[in-house]
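Section 3.1 - Work completed
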Amino acid sequence: MPNTPVVPHVPWSALLCLVLVPLAPVRTAGAQGAMGSQSTHHAAVCAAGVRTYTSLQEVPTVHDTLPLPPSPRVQVTNDEEAAAADLAMRGRAGSVGATGVVITDVTENSDGGMVLHRHVVPVFVPSDSARAHAACKT
């Protein structure tokens, strides 16, 4: 037969090793990635300890952005409700360890009045951590 390759018999155990060995570094890297994400966990901060910023440029250079836990849509009709909603939002941000929140307000006129939409980004500022935790003790 012309140019027929000869394939030697390879035991299954050898093939299994060839498959598992390349997967071992991937699995280790995944475990290290999971450990790395656990190391970015920050201690919870009470709502009173969460500072408000109006832009990301106001936040000190060394900071982490954090995810904001979800909440239902909030509709406020007076200043007291607005203050309560703000406190609840800062409490949610503090629950993930944020020492501050960057709030960007967008207002729109609607048939029933003015509608305010807020974009909120929780931030952890290491240099502000002592102040934030001290605010929670008073």
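Second construct:
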Amino acid sequence: MAAGTPRIGPGGLFGRIIVLATVIVACLVARAVAHAPALLVVAVAALVAATAAIAQVAAVLLRDDDGGEAASQQTAPRAASVARGRRTGAAVAGVAVAAVALAIVLPHGDARATATTPATAATADRAVRDFLGDAVLQNDSYDACQYLTQAAQARITQLAGEGQSCRDALAATRPAFAGIASEQELRELPLHTTLRGGTAIVRATPPAGAPATFVLRPATAAETAAFRAPACAWRIATGVTAVLGGTGGGAAS
């Protein structure tokens, strides 16, 4: 290292990695909630910087442990310093692994749950968008049906024919709504939500295609406890046939 250049030890690098790991998790969680793709770029940049810092810690530890015969002449304080450096390196690796795990889990789990849990107009709006995302964009009939009341699921099965489940019906019809084909188009879909007598009425008015009205009511305990149930206080009671081909979208049903 050049003379006069301050040396950053493992402890200093460890602190920097903690900050970068926090930035990674925060950006990915915020992206999941706000649907802001730019935050993903920031998170990737922070992950690259954290990886470089981990590599630098490893280089410092290897340099401290190098030297052949010189290593055998280390004083006790010097050996203790190297041991502390190794422990710091192990802690850094653990933090990096934890940050990556949180970055993967939080956006798909906790972030979505905290965004849709309260029974408000905003979360009713969110529930409709999530249903449309699963049904129309992801073609995920299982998760889409989880947003529906039992009566709404039964209505879909009646339209599909005897012996069909809600999931079978959605999977067979390839749901569509107002030509929406991307996450951006779904985010830009105009929704107007009104709370009335314990229900939420969500009116979707796309620029192209027929409008649709979705009526939501509070989820029951059994619905929220179901396997892979969405973390949402609402369930869609009527209006879901708007996504089925050939059924139209204007009337709630």
